[in-house]
Amino acid sequence: MSRTTAPVRSSLWVVILCFLTLVADGYDLIVYGATIPHLMEEPGWNLSPATAGMIGSWTLVGLMVGLVVAGPLTDRIGRRKLLMTGVLWFSIGSIVCALATSPTFLGAARFLTGIGMGGVVPSAVALSVEYAPKNRRQLYNALTLTGYSVGGVVCALLAIELLHQHGWRMLYALGAFYALILPVMYVFLPESVDFLVSRDRIDEARKLAARYALDLDQILQDKNAQRSPHDIAHAASGYRLVLSREFRTTILLLAVMAFCVQLIIYGLNAWLPQLMRAAGYPLGSSLQFLLVMQLGAVVGMLSGAWMADRLGSRHVMLPFLLIGGLSLIALSQKLDSAWLMLAVFGAGLGSIGTSSLIYGHIAAHFPTACRGSALGGAQAIGRFGSILGPMIGGWIVGSNLGLHWNFYAFAIPAIIAATIVPLIPQSR
């Protein structure tokens, strides 16, 4: 064991800082759905539902580009730099969005902001898992990923309080203040020990391992095992290792699941307030539904992680997806307010809660040499679903299919994802 000194800091420090970066990610992705009703009433813009859905999708195209680039990049230059760059990029992008003078301007600004934020999730998840005790990896992953929903909760609360009086530009401008956490990250956020070892920076790795009570000897053994000449697959790294025979089936199945879940998440995040307004609820109540969905997501992430650490993530993803699908079907019906809120809560639990389990399963299943690439690659494919989600929502809102199809369109992917879960190979 390489724990030569008592640890100075708890690994929860890493979780807190990674959590804060995902709060920015969650705020950025929820703010568009919260502001769509006002954007569609912006004088001179003549924003149609189809165009509004397209702008939401361009944000996610940027995220996908960022994920594709950031996955292997985080395995090359380290997690810490990408996290800090993502936060700075988001802050600048928020100011640019607040200054938008046309739908085209806003769409371009959202696309560029998405590129920067795309690098945050793979780096944050990889760092959280690498610093977590082995029996708490899913929990630490979930604690980090709740930042996404907390950011959504913050955005929904600010929208309820500020949107009517101060307009949509205020919500985007407030995102710029997130740059204030960068000095804290610079001082306290550590680099990945696994990354330092992979770059033969052993002295730096030894200091961090001692500070955070990590088993450096085990990390070095894992590194040597990956370099063993008898296992060609493990001698590879990045996307080459992800697509090797050992991991190919797992990553493809998880990517399809991510596609389905991301379609639900981003379709609902973009259109839930507008869908509920179409069902007869005032804007304030519609924003409350967005808030309840994010609260359901937080509960889903934390409870799902607790169960996944004990039962395995495969045994938790299936019931969560079924809860999400049934909740969405229930939303298509006329319900009393209590049942309606419960259905919205279940939709958040089953969609965003399942997404965190997919991230956690990938981070725990794949070795250090390709963990960032596996996270980035699977989520990049999943982003195609997130791109389609707002577009599908915009098309349905602008059509005459009926209120129930607003929710059937998102329930179907949940059922498809649930059928995939039993096909995922057991973890290594």
UniProtKB/TrEMBL annotation:
Sequence intervals crossing the membrane: 50-70, 82-101, 107-127, 139-164, 170-189, 250-268, 288-308, 315-332, 338-359, 380-397, 403-424
Location in or out of the cell: Membrane
Keywords (A to Z) from UniProt: Membrane, Transmembrane, Transmembrane helix
Domain Major facilitator superfamily (MFS) profile: residue ranges: 14-428
Topology of this chain in the membrane: Multi-pass membrane protein
Pfam families, sorted: MFS_1 (PF07690)
Protein origin, superkingdom: Bacteria
Protein's UniProt name: Aromatic acid/H+ symport family MFS transporter
Organism for this UniProt entry: Ralstonia soli
